[in-house]
């Protein structure tokens, strides 16, 4: 069995983005008509797509919502308007657009989101951008990807511009779209209150093979025509119809139960098709798709800023250490020079001392010779010194004599 990560996330839908509708002939995506082969669309009204392309005033998402809801609510809306007319409350009568606007506003209040749509979206992905990639590259013997000219691609990614220039690129994981389509069929069976607007399997993005499931949730309501819109109410209604009690706590409610059930369904479908779940050990609090993407970008920027601050701090530390090392080196040089100067001074002093020691015996010898040659002179000088300064005492000190004034 293949080991791949499995992801099921929730968010607000955007059919125009999922279809990548552009004006012109054919279903064009990112300006490349041939890229249609990398995507697969399920339960998409292609006639409505072409109509919206021809008429710039029409938005596909709004038209698709109307096309899906009108057959489901029109009879109930007509019955409601007849009751109001019989009761002489013609001011309470509603057109379909008015009813849809009221239900959309109610959904916005409950979801605390300022979107103009009641469309919910679920993104399903098998594998990450590497293991579930749509593309693979020719590699050198070190495993580095090469372009068609044999040059090493510096960054490992499935860049769309590069993909269509690279003649060596081939499709990879061709079985994953079939697995995603099987999950979509099982998803519709498991959620009778879900009105699908289409499933969009994309293979031309860096994320690898993934699927957007878009649709609306219906439930029973006590007001208006008796039909409510909204993800939470629709899921709760499903569990009520199945006789399953749901909790109201933060960690135990209809939404958490349903998400766990859908992830289990995805794991089951993957296992049936030879794919075992790889636990990525990535835990995060619940965020819708748009919020998660914004927060991911914010977290990435914060991480980059933090890394830049760390690098800046390390550079400052290295500069301070280098400066300190330079100062220490200068100090060591000064101490070495001082030590050399002291050594030279000491050597000169010893040399001088040694030369003085050599002179002393020479002078003493000549003094003795002169004393033998001139004994009378030395005796007279000695007497004069004693007379002026006194003679030696026994303890070696000289006794002074006052000079005659």
Task: Provide keyphrases for this structure.
2 domains, BirA Bifunctional Protein, domain 2, rod-shaped, two-stranded parallel ribbon, alpha+beta, 13% strand, 405 residues
Describe this structure in words.
By secondary structure, this protein is an alpha+beta fold. β6 and β7 form a beta hairpin. Strands 2, 3, 4, 9, 10 and 11 form a six-stranded antiparallel β-sheet that branches. A two-stranded parallel sheet has the order 1-12. A two-stranded antiparallel sheet has the order 5-8. The chain has two domains: 248 residues, 2-Layer Sandwich (BirA Bifunctional Protein, domain 2), CATH 3.30.930.30; 71 residues. The chain is 51% helix and 13% strand. The protein is rod-shaped and about 170 Å long.
| CATH fold-type name of the largest domain | BirA Bifunctional Protein, domain 2
Unreliable runs: 22-35, 156-169, 397-405
Count of distinct strands: 12
**What class do helices, strands and sheet pairing give?**
alpha+beta
Give the termini distance in whole angstroms. 131 Å
The percent range for strand residues is 5-15%
Helices, by number, come to: 10
Report the sheet with the most strands, covering strand number, pairing sense and barrel closure.
6 strands, antiparallel
- Any idea of the CATH class of the largest domain? Alpha Beta
Radius of gyration: 49 Å
Topology:
Blueprint: E1 2-4, E2 6-12, H1 15-19, E3 40-42, H2 46-54, H3 60-86, H4 96-111, E4 120-126, E5 135-136, E6 138-139, E7 145-146, H5 160-165, E8 170-171, H6 176-190, E9 194-202, E10 210-220, E11 227-229, H7 231-241, H8 254-272, E12 275-277, H9 289-373, H10 375-389
């Amino acid at each position: 069995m293949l080991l791949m990560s499995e992801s099921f996330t929730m968010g607000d839908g955007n059919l125009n983005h999922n279809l990548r509708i552009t004006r012109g002939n054919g279903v064009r995506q990112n300006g490349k008509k041939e890229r249609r082969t990398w995507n697969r669309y399920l339960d998409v009204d292609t006639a409505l797509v072409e109509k919206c392309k021809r008429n710039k005033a029409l938005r596909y998402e709004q038209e698709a919502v109307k096309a899906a809801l009108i057959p489901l609510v029109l009879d109930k809306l007509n019955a409601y308007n007849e009751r109001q007319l019989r009761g002489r409350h013609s001011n309470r009568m509603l057109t379909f657009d008015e009813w849809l606007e009221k239900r959309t506003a109610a959904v916005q209040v409950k979801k605390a989101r300022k979107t103009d749509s009641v469309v919910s979206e679920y993104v399903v992905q098998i594998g990450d951008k590497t293991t579930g990639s749509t593309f693979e590259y020719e590699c050198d013997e070190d495993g580095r990807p090469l372009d068609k000219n044999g040059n090493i691609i510096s960054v490992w990614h499935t860049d769309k511009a590069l993909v269509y220039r690279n003649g060596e690129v081939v499709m990879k994981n061709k079985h994953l779209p079939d697995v995603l389509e099987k999950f979509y069929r099982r998803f519709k069976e498991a959620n009778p209150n879900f009105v699908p607007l289409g499933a969009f399997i994309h293979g031309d993005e860096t994320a690898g093979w993934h699927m957007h499931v878009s649709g609306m949730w219906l439930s029973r309501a006590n007001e208006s025509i008796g039909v409510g819109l909204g993800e939470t109410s629709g899921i709760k209604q499903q569990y009520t119809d199945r006789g399953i009690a749901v909790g109201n706590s933060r960690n135990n409610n209809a939404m958490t139960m349903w998400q766990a059930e859908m992830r289990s369904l995805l794991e089951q479908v993957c296992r049936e098709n030879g794919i075992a779940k790889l636990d990525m050990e990535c835990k995060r609090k619940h965020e819708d798709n748009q919020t998660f993407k914004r927060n991911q970008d914010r977290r990435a920027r914060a991480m980059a800023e933090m890394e830049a601050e760390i690098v800046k701090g390390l550079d400052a530390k290295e500069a301070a250490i280098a400066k300190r090392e330079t100062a220490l080196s200068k100090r060591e040089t000064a101490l070495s020079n001082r030590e050399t100067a002291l050594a030279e001074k000491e050597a000169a002093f010893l040399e001088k001392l040694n030369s003085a020691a050599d002179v002393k015996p020479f002078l003493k010898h000549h003094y003795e010779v002169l004393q033998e040659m001139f004994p009378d002179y030395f005796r007279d000088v000695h007497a004069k010194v004693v007379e002026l300064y006194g003679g030696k005492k026994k303890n070696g000190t000289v006794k002074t004599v006052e000079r005659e004034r």
